[in-house]
Design goal:
By secondary structure, the chain is of the alpha/beta class. The chain is built from three helices and four strands. The protein has a four-stranded parallel beta sheet, with helices on both faces. The two termini are 22 Å apart.
C-alpha cells in the first residue's frame, strides 16, 4: 500500500507536519486499510469511492496529498489523474498509488 507521505512545509523545512489526505478507490477494504495507516501516522483523511466523488471533495476541502487506487474500473484512475493535472488549483498536488504490497501496481498511461 502507498505511504501517507507528509508534504514539506512551505519554507522547505523538514519539520514534520500532519497532512490532510484524500484516498480514492472502489475497494472498501483497500480504502479502509489506507485510511487506518494514514490516521495511525497522525494525518486527517477523507475517502472517496470514485473520481467524481473525489473532485467534489477537492472543491470543498483543502488536501495536501491524494492516494489513488490504480485498479479502479476502466480507466477511471487515469482519467481522474488527468483531470487533476489539467485543473490549475490541483496540478501540483502530490498523487500516490494505492496498492497492497503483494500486488504489482498497474501502469497508468496518461
Amino acid at each position: 500500500m502507498g505511504s501517507c507521505r507528509t508534504p514539506p512545509d512551505d519554507d522547505g523545512s523538514k519539520v514534520k507536519r500532519m497532512a490532510h489526505v484524500l484516498i480514492i478507490g472502489h475497494d472498501s477494504a483497500r480504502r479502509a486499510a489506507a485510511e487506518a495507516r494514514c490516521r495511525a501516522e497522525g494525518h486527517t483523511v477523507a475517502v472517496a469511492r470514485h473520481g467524481t466523488e473525489a473532485m467534489v471533495y477537492l472543491s470543498r476541502l483543502k488536501v495536501d496529498s491524494v492516494m489513488v487506487d490504480p485498479r479502479m474500473p476502466g480507466r477511471e484512475a487515469a482519467a481522474f489523474i488527468q483531470a487533476l493535472r489539467q485543473h490549475p488549483a490541483y496540478a501540483a498536488l502530490p498523487v500516490h498509488g494505492l496498492t497492497s504490497e503483494s500486488e504489482p501496481e498497474p501502469a497508468l498511461s496518461l
